Amino acid sequence: MRYDDRRAAGLRLARCLDFLRGQDLVVLGLPRGGVPVAFEVARGLDVPLDVLVVRKLGVPRRPEWGFGAVGENGGRVLNPDVLQEAGLSPAAQDAVERTERAEVERRVRRYRNGREPVPLAGRTVVVVDDGLATGATAEAACRIVRDRGAARVVLAVPLGPAGTVKRLRGTADQVICLQTLRFLGSVGTWYRDFTQISDAEVTALLARAGRPAAASPVTRPTADRELQVPVGRLELAARFAAPDAASAVVAFAHGSGSSRHSPRDRYLAAALSHAGLGTLLLDLLSDDEERDRHNAFDVVLLARRLHAAALWLRREIALPVGFFGAGTGAAAALEAAVLPGADIRAIVSRGGRPGLASPAALAGVRAPTLLIVGSRDTRVLSLNRLAADQLRCEHRIAVVPGADHLFEEPGARATVAELSRDWLTAHLTRQTNSTPPRRWA
What we know:
18 strands
């Protein structure tokens, strides 16, 4: 079984750890990838969350091959079998260790920002990562936790190889592994979205975990969840997320009809969330409809469903709505924006086909519109320029240097996120600065 992302893995892991509820617990996430998983575990069990900084010691020129790990408070674990096989000299070993210890100290300063670690003495400590490979990092973490006085150490992970899980049962008091695999490959292959986690995201999750829950009732729909959006007689699958103080929501329209599983859309949704915007990643087509490629080009169908979703969003959460469209979803967003009652405040297109919208829709759009295109995607760039000539609203074409249609080149995805974030926050916030931000539990 593949997990949608680290959050989904954390939710499943939290349910499996419910037997620990009521104990004096602390959850520790191993940064960076283990922290989003640990955040959901800590929230599910309603216990404190902290990080434990541990770094793998990688063989030079083969850094993925770990010969050990180092962590906070001088913690250190070595794998003598790897050291012998790699033929690593003491000098080379020391050089790697100095580098990784310096990184440990940097991350401790960044994540804690002067804050003292959560006390572990006498408590049950749950160490969480997004998966196991060699297990050196997890082993070092468990030993450090033990040295800090934990009464009981539980290692909890979504997946790991059988041999590693068996060995770690000699280090931790208990190992909870949702999927014990004979052949792992790599941890990332077991996630649909395994986007790298940044230091800023780790810091933000720790800050969220440290804040008390809002006293007011939760507004429906609850923040950060899978849901069904009613569209006429249909219900469309969607993923809704909102930060604690969302000022607006952005509905996504993906060209294939499916947005909630798109790694690019989910990466962008995370960036918008950090900027204070809610997101609705919407599957505009059912699984059966998506099998017929023609449906992805039925702009009128896509637009009507996106429009219905926007009306539902405003009715349910009473916040302004913007659109983000990719591929033919960009044309659908422009068409939906001019339908009755839409009141869309801003639109962003990424590698979109806005020219597939009708001339009347292009001329009738009033929402400020940003068209993002890769410089190497020359045909689509030309089509976007032709469509832009028909727009009568505030608009701009942003060309990402060196990027092709999928924006998979180094740095291209981050550039798209920055452009989208700046455009949407500027226009959505500008028009809603008199409205108090919505707070979510």
